[in-house]
Amino acid sequence: MPPNRPRTIKDVAAWAQVSTATVSRVINHAGNVRPHTADRVANALEALGYVPNAWARAMATDGSDLVGLIVPDILNPFFAAIYSGLNETAKSRGLAVWMVDSGDNSEQERQMLHMLGGYRARGIAITPAHPAANLRAIERIGVPICLVDRRLAKNLWDMVLIDNVTGSRQVAQIFVAAGHQRIAIIAGPQNSTPGLERLSGFRDALEKEGLSMPPEYIKIGDFRLNSGYALGQELLALDRPPTAIFSCNNLMTMGLLQAIHAHPAHSLGKTVAVVGFDDIPISTLTDPPLTVVSRPMREMGVQAARLIMARMESPAKPLETVVLGPQLIIRGSEKNPGLLRWI
Amino acid sequence: MPPNRPRTIKDVAAWAQVSTATVSRVINHAGNVRPHTADRVANALEALGYVPNAWARAMATDGSDLVGLIVPDILNPFFAAIYSGLNETAKSRGLAVWMVDSGDNSEQERQMLHMLGGYRARGIAITPAHPAANLRAIERIGVPICLVDRRLAKNLWDMVLIDNVTGSRQVAQIFVAAGHQRIAIIAGPQNSTPGLERLSGFRDALEKEGLSMPPEYIKIGDFRLNSGYALGQELLALDRPPTAIFSCNNLMTMGLLQAIHAHPAHSLGKTVAVVGFDDIPISTLTDPPLTVVSRPMREMGVQAARLIMARMESPAKPLETVVLGPQLIIRGSEKNPGLLRWI
DNA sequence: TTGAGGGATGTAAACGCTGACATTGAGGTG
DNA sequence: CACCTCAATGTCAGCGTTTACATCCCTCAA
Asked: If you average pLDDT over each of A240-249, B6-15, B262-271, which comes out highest?
């Protein structure tokens, strides 16, 4: 078994027969160490397998190199992509990113906020679970916070958002252009920004085109696969099922496709058109391939990192909101080949 | 703006007019504090929004509550699932899990190992990038290490593995049972356990059935989507293409499906059968649905947590290896409806 | 009345590191 | 040869906690 106690700077100093200060200087490449001495210390470091204690260093210098990322669902590749952008940018400035999962649940979010606060993270990027209360509490420990993808009632933090309204409007427009009349939506929770904005943006755009959705065509899901499946089934089981469905996030789209697939009388592109919010890996594999509104996910992470680092430098600078545009990727599943059958 | 300096136990002590020791006792529910005093402290904690500094606490108690998880690709849902199991188990014992990405790259793995070592993680679960050298270095800081999903040359650590050989053999057997003669494989890198074992297990099983794969039917990929796509194209473009393909991980299977989809003369289940290692979200959506070998991913995380915590308690206990069985899920894509056409 | 016992609280050292300051000594200048 | 300079190195306080130990004081029994 290896030595149980991690080596300390004192062990190294003793080995090299110098003071701890000299070791510290060598480690941190602070000047004024004779090459001969530096060599001896380097040998000691190597021989003992010394790894500096990051906490102790942070305590002494009053600053960790930790940035937190709190996401509602760590299994959702969408958030993993945000992590990826955030991490890359942070890393280039010597910061490390710790991603944790709130389960989209207020209590767990509070725990995670406290945990990261306790570790004295230098900043926190968060896609908040619904209520705002948690952030007010953690805000007092003085950590820069950046909201990602979701607004909160009070406009108190930097934000990186997606222009959901524009994205949804584009979907409405191509449905209309394809000749659809019976258009439905599987929306997200109405207490979150994306859920709200995608529904209202879609509905408003349809109304501008002179169309309206009857209540039974408006389904409110929870952004998870199962709800896409269940609500998809409900829509398909209607006496007059829609010919086009807008699914408001990746997982629900997967569920919806599954529901269509499982239904004896329906098939994608034949009886029902689908457009999804968020691109998904299988979008090119379905038949017809899936038309989607794609979000620049990595870029959201990059921007969040930028905002956090900027605020670390000037805590008092005015709040900043970055709104990124979604991209409509037309692949075919929005069309309505069965148009004539249904008129 | 909030107070810039996080509150310390001293601030609280001053506010409540007690000593820091008393505050500490209240926080940690160590007894012997008069209710009246405890109340006063509790008020101070609340009023100041105090969040204990986790580093300082770890330094004083010589023990963090941190466990590291190093994965080759944080975007791959497979590893996210491991995280999920690991995190849940660790959390129930008051440990926090920090997942980081090695990019399946030795140098970055080394950095991550050092980072977690620097933060004095109590244990590290890792799916190692290929060479073993890194671990020897970090081993010296005395952290329990548990390998997940991949062996290394030297058997020096606890491990959680999948029985790849059995999984692959089952695939070979159902291909043979379905009457396939021309069977190909898209395998993983041959310097990693899963890549190696899945190929050899598959080949050996076929040979026991009296079949052999010609070299052009054996493609070595890198476990990423693009290589599944490219190698799939190569297989389909052969003069005598295989009627059955075993794809050795989730991402390559996605790529393979894409290649089949894109090929004018081929289609899944009609001209070519596919079985994948690892279940994927779309497996029930393809036509026919995809037959796969599924791994108990969360359970791998749970076991890794168990091994790490056990070794934290008794560092000298004998090495332990847990081998979990994969599960064959037969959905239809292994069949060969085109059998007659090809004979 | 007094001293033992023990609950409540305070004091201070220790954890591993950094950095301001102090000390040492070699080399250069007059 | 005395003095100054400055590079090289050492000393020590402090970062925010916990915890062993010391102290205080109240209660109770003899």
From this structure: A240-249
Residues A321 and A336 both lie in one domain: no
Least Cα distance to A58 among B125, B57, B110, B141 occurs for: B57
**177-236 in B: which are within 8 Å (CB) of A?**
225
Q: Which nucleotide is nearest to B19 (CA to C1')?
A: C10
Contact flag, residue A5 CB and nucleic strand C, below 7 A: yes
Please indicate, yes or no, if residue B143 is contained in any of the structural domains: yes
pLDDT at B98 over 90: yes
Contact B288, B322 (CB under 8 A): no
- Whether the CB-CB separation of A186 and A232 falls below 8 Å is answered with yes
**A208 and A281 in a common domain:** yes
Cα(B251)–Cα(B79) distance, integer angstroms: 12
Please give the residue that has the higher pLDDT: either B220 or B270: B220
Which CATH number is B228's domain given? 3.40.50.2300
pLDDT at B158: 96
Nucleotides of D under 7 A from a protein CB: 7-12, 14-20
The residue in chain B having the minimum alpha-carbon distance to the alpha carbon of residue A116 is B54
Look at residues B207, B168, B186 and name the one whose alpha carbon lies nearest to residue B295: B168
User: Structurally, how many domains does chain A consist of?
Assistant: 3
pLDDT at site B204: 96
Closest CB to B316: pick one of A1, A6, A118.
Answer: A1
Nearest to A118 among B53, B77, B87 (CB): B53
Q: Report the distance from CA of residue A307 to the C1' of nucleotide C6 in Å, as an integer.
A: 57
Residue at B2 is within a domain: no
Q: Output the average pLDDT for chain B.
A: 90
